[in-house]
């Protein structure tokens, strides 16, 4: 290890410890902590956050980091160390550009505005939330402009924070393609799909049995129970303390069979990514998945390419029927497969099917772009939201709560985040096409043998953590640059076959 | 707030945050964390311990602490602040003597060794645990000797950490009395008690129903579910993050009704203590119970003086029978009361009855004394353990898991801790005698109204946290010094009455 890096390491280790502790409190708050704890516990979490920043952002680290830019210093670093330094520079670039006073004021604002959003959504009153959202947008523009320094569109800066190498240019191409192909496809599919009776999915399903079956599914796709645990929370999520302790949650509904099953497969995909990061980089700044988009590509890959495939269910559908004989005895495997792939326009993004999902993202992307270009104001959001929902999905939200207020992201200042969901899904389709070429993918699923699939993902993606960007990983894996055609073609092929659209 | 104390406060707050984070990791490890997490997580815990240590023990704090010894500075402090300063001085005395590197290595060791103990106990293999225990003992001796500085027996140092004012001298007197009175009493009681058929207790009791009834019992005695949670672990324990988040665990056996019920009442006693600490001192150095012994006095008070009383069960026994009608329909209340107070020598401390319990403590006390005097080695522990169990209880453990490996304490480095259980029980008997004089204690139990009892304990003991010592609290409450006679007399009276020994 280089001497300069060695001096830096204690600061990094400390920061990781504080961050991990903060993560454990977050996990605990979402899954277990008693009702009245929050007020007192938030002091602890506040201190841990402060100390996290102080261990990374201080004069000693700044000096060491500057020294490590020198060529002879850089030469002494291993690839992992270089990746860590790159990451640390990114953190400095992001944080140091913002005057501390503004940063603090902004954090206070989001803490308030997220609460205001909860209330506004509950009361279906966008106007109560709008002034806070306006302030957030103003701050985000200001912060992005500090870093854009005139050379970049501020929205590009925000997009780049979530997905390096993806900006307005790349996304416009992706989303244009999706709009052209998916809007008419969705129309055709949803007409065909109305004939599929899915009432079986909404019968009464025992919670304990669901819990047990979800646990089984999670292990079946490769979640390692020696390195992770499952709990329950209001909204499913994945949280990694390090590669030997990765946690997922689920939310089980007694009147919906699919919901918990596909949530658990989705979160298992995220978890398998984090569990497969190399031991050498876990507990460092580059020890987690490389980007939001790449993470989402893995969860979607498990949820959709694997979990919604007929071949996946072939060996285990019998077990599902045996678990719920009363509800499923008359539902054939192919009926079930059509059921889990049934597609139709709907209002709520998180409940959308695979086919209509990207249209929800496009609505948000186009609106964010317009806000940051100054084309529209915050006050106009509900109107634009409803127009676009009508245009792309053919429906109009009956309330703002089911429309522009449905997602929490903007209340936390997360602009530029939504496109990652679509980028991830597009990446998963490209990976899927590649893997089907180089291995007997469907055969593995039929045999219930997911190990070669998981091993290949580990070796090509997971083990690298964030030492490589998603673009680098994708290119090294497939020999191609990111190409949105795979996504559109995947959806067309899949739905045309499943619902015999060409007959 | 005095200006000097104000300068000190950020250091104290930071230390509390790190300590609380460490506690949450401890809770998590015992109740939830996946098997393979320990090795990686122990690094985080190590860093948090290190930072805890650094925020309290440093030149700036040392200087402020020194300044606060001056009379005019002291005059400016509130009572709470004075108590915090006293506690901080104690920590300085305890920690300053230990080199930070050793302190950190020791904390990492105990995090691993506690897991090794779990496995060794499961595999009944003391040899797998012995090397870790040996290392812990070596560290404890070293640490104690740093502080004993030749003037004190190192074991006295450890005893004093758990109970100020109690050392080998005091404990030899207490335990001699107990040995003289209790060994013959236990013999008489266990002969009489053989006529009580307790087979009902070992029938099959549904785990979910037990869990539910234990939760009920916990709430019935006063555990506040808005400020605490219950989980399961190998060995029941209580852990407090602050007075609004106090957690207890239980261990439920399908073939033992009593075990989980009395564990939960016991842990609830600990939890009620922590939940009742004054808001003004929670999250400070004096925000927890004042000593191990006083803590144990409260858990024992709830478990034995309240929980094993006929009056306690009078209003709720019907509910218990209704929960398990098949198993309990022919068991009368008085039969049940004799059952839960049946005394006979047995192997497992945590399952021991109230009468034989102190003998289990004496075994551990005498062994710890011998280890720290160098009279015996860790390798000899199983042999000595079995010898002493034979001497005091008249039985020999068939396995080490049921013998020397039964308790988790030593795996956490907790030597000098066990005697606190006996001190606590003796205190609880003294408190009980006092409270029966000043309030209609039995009447409250009969009415199912534990509030006045709990309120009195809160006002006399709990709210003070550790701003007063257990000796001060006991004197202020009862007007008397600690007196072991109450304990011996309590046991004699109770068992003579219940089993008609004088007839």
Describe the protein's topology.
Two copies of one chain form a homodimer.
Chain A: H1 3-31, H2 38-56, H3 59-67, H4 71-75, H5 79-96, H6 100-123, H7 126-148, H8 154-162, H9 168-193, H10 207-221, E1 228-232, E2 238-242, E3 245-250, H11 257-275, H12 292-306, H13 310-313, H14 317-323, H15 325-328, H16 333-340, H17 357-373, H18 381-393, H19 418-438, H20 441-446, H21 451-460, H22 470-478, H23 485-498
Parallel strand pairs in A: 1-3
Antiparallel strand pairs in A: 2-3
Helix pairs in contact in A: 1-2, 1-3, 6-7, 7-8, 9-17, 9-23, 10-11, 11-12, 12-19, 17-18, 17-19, 19-23
Concise synopsis of the structure shown:
The structure is a homodimer of 503-residue chains. Chain A is 64% helix and 3% strand.
Write down the CATH topology of the largest domain in chain A.
Neurolysin, domain 3
Instruction: Output the strand order for the largest sheet of chain A.
Output: 1-3-2
Give a quick account of the main beta sheet of chain A: strands, pairing sense, barrel closure: 3 strands, mixed
Largest interface: A-B, 36 and 36 residues
Helix fraction bin of chain A: 55-70%
- The fraction of residues assigned to DSSP E strands of chain A is under 5%
Total helical elements of chain A? 23
Q: Based on the structure given, which CATH architecture of the largest domain in chain A is correct?
A: Orthogonal Bundle
Q: Secondary-structure element order of chain A, as H and E? A: HHHHHHHHHHEEEHHHHHHHHHHHHH
* CATH class annotation of the largest domain in chain A: Mainly Alpha
Total of domains of chain A: 2
* Global geometry of chain A: globular
CA-based gyration radius of chain A = 23 Å
């Amino acid at each position: 290890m280089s001497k300069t890096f060695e001096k830096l390491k204690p600061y990094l280790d400390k920061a990781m410890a504080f961050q991990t502790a903060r993560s454990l409190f977050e996990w605990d708050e979402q899954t277990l902590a008693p009702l009245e704890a929050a007020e007192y516990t938030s002091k602890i979490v506040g201190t841990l956050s402060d100390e996290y920043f102080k261990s990374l952002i201080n004069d000693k680290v700044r000096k060491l980091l500057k020294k490590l830019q020198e060529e002879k210093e850089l030469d002494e670093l291993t690839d992992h160390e270089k990746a860590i330094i790159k990451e640390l520079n990114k953190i400095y670039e992001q944080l140091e550009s913002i005057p501390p006073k503004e940063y603090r004021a902004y954090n206070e604002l989001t803490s308030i505005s997220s609460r205001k959003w909860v209330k506004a959504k509950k009361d279906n009153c966008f106007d109560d939330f709008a002034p806070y959202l306006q302030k957030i947008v103003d701050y985000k523009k200001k912060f992005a402009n500090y870093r854009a320094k005139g050379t970049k569109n501020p929205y590009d800066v925000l997009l780049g924070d979530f997905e390096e190498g993806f900006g307005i240019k790349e996304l416009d191409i992706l989303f244009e393609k999706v709009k052209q192909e998916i809007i008419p496809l969705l129309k055709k599919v949803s007409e065909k799909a109305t004939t599929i009776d899915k009432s079986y999915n909404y019968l009464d399903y025992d919670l304990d049995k669901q819990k047990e079956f979800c646990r089984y599914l999670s292990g079946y796709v490769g979640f390692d129970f020696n390195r992770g645990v499952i709990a329950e929370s209001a909204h499913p999520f994945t949280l990694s303390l390090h590669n030997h302790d990765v946690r997922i949650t689920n939310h089980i509904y007694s009147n919906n069979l699919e919901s918990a099953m596909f949530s658990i497969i989705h979160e298992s995909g995220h978890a398998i990514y984090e569990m497969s990061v190399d031991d050498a980089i876990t507990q460092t700044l580059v020890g987690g998945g490389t980007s939001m988009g790449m993470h989402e590509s893995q969860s979607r890959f498990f949820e959709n390419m694997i979990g919604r495939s007929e071949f996946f269910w072939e060996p285990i559908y019998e077990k599902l029927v045996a678990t719920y004989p009363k509800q499923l005895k008359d539902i054939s495997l192919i009926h079930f497969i059509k059921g889990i792939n049934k597609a139709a326009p709907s209002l709520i993004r998180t409940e959308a099917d695979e086919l209509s999902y990207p249209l929800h993202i496009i609505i948000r992307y186009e609106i964010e772009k317009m806000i940051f270009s100054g084309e529209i104001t915050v006050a106009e959001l509900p109107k634009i939201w409803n127009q676009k929902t009508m245009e792309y999905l053919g429906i109009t939200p009956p309330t703002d709560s089911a429309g522009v207020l449905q997602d929490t992201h903007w209340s936390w200042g997360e602009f530029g985040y939504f496109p990652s969901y679509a980028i991830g899904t597009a990446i998963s389709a490209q990976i899927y096409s590649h893997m089907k070429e180089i291995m007997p993918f469907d055969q593995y699923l039929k045999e219930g043998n997911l190990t070669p699939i998981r091993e290949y993902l580990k070796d090509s993606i997971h083990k690298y953590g964030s030492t490589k960007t998603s673009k680098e990983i994708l290119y090294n894996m497939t020999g191609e640059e990111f190409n949105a055609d795979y996504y559109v073609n995947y959806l067309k092929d899949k739905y045309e076959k499943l619902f015999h659209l060409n007959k």
